[in-house]
Amino acid sequence: MPNSIRICDKCSNINIEKLKEKFGDENIKVGCVGACRETKSGYFGKINGVYVSEDNEEEFIKKCEI
Fold first, then answer.
1. Tell me: the pLDDT tens digits for 9-56?
2. Residue 56 — φ and ψ, nearest 5°?
3. What is the C-alpha to C-alpha distance for residues 5 and 25, in angstroms, rounded to an integer?
């Protein structure tokens, strides 16, 4: 289970409320992850400080569970 998931509410394409329900408010940080210039599509964020990009939201959430 991750200690920290950082998601941009503008461009990460992830349902933040879904993540908060699954992993708890204290583990979700909302703000820039500095990656929108790298990709405009896909689902991305930082898990424990490591940039992760997936093709769909479910795959991103699975990475968060590891």
1. 998 999 999 999 999 999 999 999 988 776 667 899 999 999 999 999
2. -145, 165
3. 10
Give 50's strand partners: 47
Predicted confidence at residue 12, as pLDDT, reads 92
What is each CA distance from 47 to 13, 52, 62, in whole angstroms? 15, 7, 11
Output the DSSP codes for 28-62.
Answer: EEES--S-TTT-SSSEEEEETTEEEEESSHHHHHH
If we measure between CA atoms, which residue out of 22, 36, 21 comes closest to residue 7? 36
The sign of the CA dihedral 24, 58, 40, 50 is positive
pTM, full prediction: 0.86
